[in-house]
Amino acid sequence: MLLFHVLHQAVRPSTGDVVYDEFEDGPSFAELETRFEHIAPEELLLPESVTLTTENFIREYVTRVQRFVIEKSICLIFKLAMQ
Fold this sequence. Notes:
Layout: E1 4-12, E2 17-25, H1 30-39, E3 43-47, H2 52-65, E4 69-73, H3 76-81
Parallel strand pairs: 3-4
Antiparallel strand pairs: 1-2
């Protein structure tokens, strides 16, 4: 089975809460969708290196829930997170 390695960080500006999570997910992205439902993000910043499969899932999810926006970014934060 094809697995995707996912690393995400979530910040809630109103409280300062930060969530770090890293996990393996399958082609249905059930784990990622569960985390989106739990965290309820308002905005996603995606690194340029995100796979097309992952990006397509996220765009489809965003269209379905119509809850947040996506931005792709060349961001130092992504580089620091991977160190």
